[in-house]
């Protein structure tokens, strides 16, 4: 970070960021000189009008060039920091050199385009909060005519979202596209790039493989969980229709109806039956889905989240129902020693639930988050 900040000092601007420095390669006649600020302080104010700021910050071709600069660098430090998600460097350079917001690489991509292309939500949100020349920076297109919305719809070879499952990857890609689209300036219209493609065309074309992988992943997950849900529903139905201790012949009421364990058994068996059936219905709905792009945004993740939640509830309710019903058999013989026996008996089913918890938490986190978040691994040298 310190090395990049040191490199940022090579900008050919005054430290206050008010105007470009004079260069020996500029013509000396006054007609082609850039705008000179009469303010002796050369101060930079965020309250200035956007049009005035654009006039003040116009740079000669020697500074904003498609080729390499005098040091042979193709990207300035702020562009490197933007595409790698280092918000501290981006913020520091913008504070010292406000005109650096206009920097572009050889592909005519500025910080906004690089942040969108490399899926850097923190940098993008930082730039979105700035009010100076916001419309100009966010409306920029690269040399291929791609706007920020085109790049948000484009999926490269690398998958930046560190979240398991192709379906969740697809969900976050759609969330990122929607977030960039909603954060565009007012009166922004999606235009075609140089090869006449709209952002939605790019989204459909570049996400075909990910969409297919997500559909296969959801199918396998739903099939596996639906088998477990069907088994629990079968056991829960048989348990809920059985009354421990029988019923009284004269009144037909349960013999053990006043026992606390009987009430726990009746309630838990009903919960197990209802939740297992709900889980089974959700997984069947996933299996019969059309697996379109819009389905991965909310429909399929919510169904999977509801199905897994119902499955975990049914597993827990079934275990409680089993322990409560069996307690009448062992309460006089083992008394309190029966509880460790029940705990050991429930271990196999509990292991299955624990194995599914990471997927459940990742799915919940991905569904609740409005803006996808990058995960960064810190590597110590």
From TrEMBL:
Biased composition (Basic and acidic residues): 9-18
Region (Disordered): 1-49
Protein name: PGG domain-containing protein
Location of the PGG domain: 216-328
Residue ranges, compositional bias (Acidic residues): 36-49
Species, as recorded: Escallonia herrerae
Superkingdom of origin organism: Eukaryota
Keyword Transmembrane: yes
Any one GO cellular component localisation term in the record: membrane
Membrane-spanning ranges: 264-287, 308-329, 341-361
Keywords of the record: Membrane, Transmembrane, Transmembrane helix
């Amino acid at each position: 970070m310190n090395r990049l900040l040191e490199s940022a000092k090579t900008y050919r601007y005054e430290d206050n960021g008010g105007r470009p420095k004079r260069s020996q390669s500029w013509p000396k006649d006054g007609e082609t000189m850039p705008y000179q600020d009469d303010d002796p302080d050369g101060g930079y104010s965020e309250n200035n009008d956007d049009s005035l700021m654009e006039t003040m910050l116009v740079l000669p071709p020697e500074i904003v060039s498609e080729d390499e600069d005098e040091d042979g660098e193709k990207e300035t430090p702020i562009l490197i920091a933007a595409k790698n998600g280092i918000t501290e460097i981006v913020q520091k350079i913008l504070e010292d050199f406000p005109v650096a917001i206009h920097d572009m690489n050889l592909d005519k991509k500025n910080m906004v385009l690089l942040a969108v292309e490399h899926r850097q939500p923190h940098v993008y949100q930082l730039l979105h909060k700035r009010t100076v020349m916001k419309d100009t920076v966010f409306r920029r297109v690269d040399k291929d005519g791609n706007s920020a919305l085109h790049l948000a719809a484009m999926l490269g070879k690398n998958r930046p979202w560190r979240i398991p499952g192709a379906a969740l990857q697809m969900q976050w890609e759609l969330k990122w596209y929607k977030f960039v689209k909603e954060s565009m300036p007012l009166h922004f219209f999606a235009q075609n790039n140089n090869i006449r493609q709209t952002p939605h065309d790019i989204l459909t074309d570049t996400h075909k493989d990910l969409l297919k992988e997500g559909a296969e992943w959801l199918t396998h997950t739903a099939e596996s969980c639906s088998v477990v849900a069907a088994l629990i529903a079968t056991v829960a139905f048989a348990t809920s229709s059985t009354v421990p201790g029988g019923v009284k012949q004269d009144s037909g009421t349960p013999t053990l109806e006043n026992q606390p364990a009987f009430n726990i058994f009746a309630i838990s068996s009903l919960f197990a039956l209802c939740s297992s059936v709900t889980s089974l219905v959700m997984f069947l709905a996933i299996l019969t889905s059309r697996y379109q792009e819009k389905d991965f945004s909310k429909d399929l993740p919510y169904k999977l989240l509801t199905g897994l939640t119902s499955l975990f509830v049914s597993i827990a309710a079934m275990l409680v129902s089993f322990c409560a019903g069996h307690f009448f058999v062992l309460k006089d013989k083992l008394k309190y020693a029966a509880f460790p026996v029940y705990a050991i008996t429930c271990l196999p089913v509990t292991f299955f639930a624990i194995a599914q918890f990471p997927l459940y938490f990742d799915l919940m986190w991905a569904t609740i988050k409005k803006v996808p978040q990058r995960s960064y691994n810190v590597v110590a040298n």
